[in-house]
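Troubleshooting entry. Yesterday's outputs looked truncated, so today I'm pasting the complete records for two proteins to confirm everything comes through intact. If either block looks cut off, that's the bug. Protein one:
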Amino acid sequence: MKRIATIQDISCFGKCSITVALPVISAMGVECAIVPTTVLSTHTAGFTGYTVRDISDELIPIAEHWKKENIALDTLYTGYLANAEQIDSTKKFIELTKNDKTMIFVDPAMADNGKLYPGFSADFPSKMLELVKIADVVCPNITEACLLLGKEFKDEGEYDEAYIRSLVDGFAALGIKETVITGVKYGDGRHGAVAYDKESGEYRYLFGENQDCYFHGTGDLFSSVLCGALTKGEDICSATQKAVDFTIACIKQTLPDKANHPYGVKFEECLHLICKE
């Protein structure tokens, strides 16, 4: 059985980060070890007064113990990291636990809709870029890609295929083997991602039917499926399409009851779609 270790926060209530990654990756028939960086009482979208406990000081002791126990990892998957110190700890964790065959998968979860998430300073993307540069696979949305590469952000309807390719090319120039840009819409009723394999030089456009709504945590769903599929040996094209299809299916499952689900989608009712045969 393949093994992924995911490094990101735990929201005790709300469907995002580790509480999405663990069940999704497990359903795909891949072992998922967890490395929590922060514990929150709820996720931060739509809730106020939530509690936050930074536990990133445990990362290095965990890594050292795993190294002592010779725990082998096929993939290290990073998600939301709350501050620069957590990025430094995550880089050290990766150095201590990876082997020659370990895939480094980075979802630079820090921004959307043209701006950083609350709590991040303007210099945070430059710090995240340090982590991105050691990745084999990166999975940013358009906003995150622009912030990391220092490019102008263009909203839906303002960009074209050449613009998205320029973002992909920016990561390839950093030495990233495979890049997936998410949240791409060309105004034709489709919504999905653009994937690029540096070795083949091929751009692939993987789309599904656009759902005109927003749910918290869908980016984490997408990244978890993509990471799981790549770890199992699927190519970047099929893995990205699987992530697109699953994310859209979860949104569709939730739409009839969206008023009662401000904290995420009903992905539990869709896990059978990605379960190991």
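Protein two, checking that the full record survives here as well:
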Amino acid sequence: MEKFDLVVIGGGPGGYPAAVRASQLGLNVALVEADSLGGECTNYGCIPTKALLYPSGLAASLARLEFAKGYVEIDFEGLMDWVSGVVESVSGGVSSLLKGYGVEVLRGRARISAPGVVEVEGVGSIGYEKLIVATGTSPARIPGLEPDGDVVHDNRSILRLRRKPGRMLIVGGGYIGVEYATVMSRLGVEVTVVELMERLLPTMMRDFSRVVERRLRSEGVRILTGRKVESLERREGYAKARISGVGEEEFDTVLVAVGRKPNSRGLGLEGLGVKTDSHGYIVVNEGMETTSPGVYASGDVSGPPLLAHKAFLQGVVAAERAAGDSTAAYDARAVPAVVYTDPELATTGLTLDEAKKMGVDAAETRLPLAALARVALEGCRECFAKIVYERSTGAVLGFHVAAPHASEIIAEATLAIEMGATVEDLASTIHPHPSVSESVKEVAELALEKPIHYILKRR
């Protein structure tokens, strides 16, 4: 039986960075992956959805221009084939990276058969000194709404579509649901979104929900909040859905996007004494160490928020701990999150309510961005930026923005929070003009009551 210093189970954002970092530190590393390298993000989540949003967004932006003649028609099958190519390219890049660092990649499902031993399906047993579990999450299932890959889909099987839907039902108004609603409506699909809670994006701030609901409705998306799909009758080529308060309707495509569940079962963790919480997420400390010595967990399987960029850092911390660095820790003061709708919604740090619940004397300033030059030329009337800060010190606690390219500016606010920067620091930092990044400076100036491009209301 071949033995490794470190075995990593899972080749996604929580796994492959761990393998790379451990190899850089001189460990002999094996990585076990049951599916495709890159994990959920590369193959079914972050990358394919953004690949869908990019060309459909270009076409939608052109179509909105007053002087545009006609619109850009997108071939659906060609688009989906192109997305598959992008995914394969990114996954191939992960493979090359691991090969370049000398990581042994083993394909197959892994199970811990005994302490220090991992059984890899189709390969055999391998030994380890240290172990990192980075198995991620899978789409949650609703009884009666299980995907069949034909009419009813989850975020994985939907990528196999090659015929454009006519009428599409999206069950779930979280980030996956609203991103697919954005894509499909841009492509001319008649979309209905059903969300059990009272608003879309129910775990995010209401301002974000209002922005995305207005935009989706303006693009013809039908939004049914406070409703649920009571039953689904599958027929050949379509399904009949009974929606509470609405009745029975027919759809040729159904996407179920109602959350995630951790891939922690069936790994043999109980034999190592690894503790999981009530939802099945692996319990870890700041060093990504589990309750079993020498066993670590990183990425989505270690709990929310379920974000690839958070998993990257956690994987590195787990690898450094496994290599003997007792100081390595995951202790992020702010974790940025983005929903890639139109406009993009980006958030980092605390909301005002969260800060107050922590006992902080905090304040919040909100700046409409419709007059910001770069935002104006992209036609976003409902865009805004919001900054949360401590009253006494001016320390930045949170930043939240709805704007084009919000994903490209949220890291600045995250860095400000991590470094303990103040509102004054942001206001005195020169930003390029015209750019969406100016929203950071402008909202900070407004918080200090000395805005240059905003008329301050007299008290």
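Both blocks look complete. Sanity check on protein two: The mean pLDDT is 96.
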